[in-house]
């Protein structure tokens, strides 16, 4: 996929296309960032319109994609091209390592899409992007997220606080045991 004249990796699984988030995803990103589970478990990003979602993509997603060659991806169901959620490898401020994150619209949760996309990006992180480890964070009360992090092989390491945050998060990690 080409974003601002640069070609970036896209991925495919049996049921999904996984490609970098682009400006055409703004309406979808607006819905996702304002759904109840996003607000509860990830936090309010104060994106109140599709135009603000465009700006969010430009200012929050594109810079890392351009800097590292990977970032946040839109997860699309092959059978009907429906945008289901996002999954990404993120370089988060105040967090050690590259964080794998995922969020799906409520109607697509619990159907294995998050596992399928996270497993694919974990493999790409190690094999393609040559990451030495992948980390993950979640709130202690987000049991589905905790289970998914463990299902893709991450192990609980410790509780942490992110900068300017008062809520403890569970920090998971997985080292790349392959020789690069």
TrEMBL record:
Give TM segment ranges.
none
| N-acetyltransferase domain sequence ranges | 16-175
Q: Which GO terms describe its molecular function?
A: acyltransferase activity, transferring groups other than amino-acyl groups
Gene3D superfamilies cross-referenced by the UniProt entry: 3.40.630.30
**What InterPro entries is this protein classified in?**
Acyl_CoA_acyltransferase, GNAT_dom, N-acetyltransferase
PANTHER family xref list: GNAT FAMILY, PUTATIVE (AFU_ORTHOLOGUE AFUA_3G00765)-RELATED-RELATED, N-ACETYLTRANSFERASE DOMAIN-CONTAINING PROTEIN
This one is known as: GNAT family N-acetyltransferase
């Amino acid at each position: 996929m080409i974003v601002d004249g640069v070609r970036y990796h896209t991925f495919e699984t049996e049921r999904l296309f996984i490609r970098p988030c682009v400006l055409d995803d703004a309406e979808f990103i607006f819905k996702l960032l304002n759904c109840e589970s996003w607000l509860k478990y990830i936090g309010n990003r104060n994106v109140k319109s599709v135009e603000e979602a465009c700006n969010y993509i430009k200012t929050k997603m594109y810079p890392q994609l351009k800097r590292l060659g990977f970032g946040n991806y839109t997860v699309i169901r092959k059978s009907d091209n429906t945008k289901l959620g996002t999954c990404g490898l993120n370089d988060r401020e105040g967090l050690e390592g590259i964080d794998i994150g995922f969020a799906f619209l409520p109607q697509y949760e619990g159907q294995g899409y998050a596992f399928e996309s996270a497993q694919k990006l974990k493999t790409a992180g190690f094999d393609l992007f040559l990451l030495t480890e992948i980390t993950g964070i979640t709130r202690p009360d987000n049991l589905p997220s905790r289970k998914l992090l463990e299902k893709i092989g991450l192990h609980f390491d410790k509780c942490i606080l992110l900068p300017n945050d008062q809520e403890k998060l569970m920090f998971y990690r997985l080292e790349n045991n392959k020789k690069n």
